[in-house]
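Before relying on records like the one below, remember that each one covers exactly one chain. Contacts with other chains, cofactors or solvent are not represented anywhere in the record.
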Amino acid sequence: MLTTNHSHSKPNMALVVMFSSMARVVVLRLFMLDPLRAYYQRQIEAATGLPIRAVQRELDRLASSGLLYRRSEGNRMYYQVDMQFALFPELRGLVLKTASDEERLRGLLALDESVRLAFLNGEEKKVLVVTTSGRPSSVSAPAGYVMEVLSVDEFARQAADRSASLETYLARGVDLLGRREDVIWRRIEAAGYLVRKEQGVP
């Protein structure tokens, strides 16, 4: 009996750590939607709207559970999901099942290696996905949305020309993935676009 109880205590503690706080759910959602990215505390604070103390507390707890690992780079501590964590598939599945169409789209595009950038115009129900090759992503747009795909080169050319076809995304839409470190963002900024991030995107 003692052995059985002990063997179940670690997974049980992991579940308690995962779901005992609304702030933790908000932080967890951020990581589950884009598990390949590493985030530092201020990015998480900005994306979630949580006070920095709450962010730090939840990151410590999620790291101690084994779901997140951390690494320091300069004076910043970065946190990233350990996708080998035993409960990762289930946690991600729960987040995707409870996500809005736009969040689910973001979560699926984030794991498609060919996708570099994605923009959403919710008013017109259009999605622009920029891929390395220009071939369509394996991800489908939510029902009622139209997805357009451009190669990196074609997107860069159209951005430089301030093509009218990009206005719907870069002037009136939002950045769905938040990958501002991508070199393509220099082309977007050089063309004079100030693209807002989708709510909850770091």
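The chain has nine helices and eight strands.
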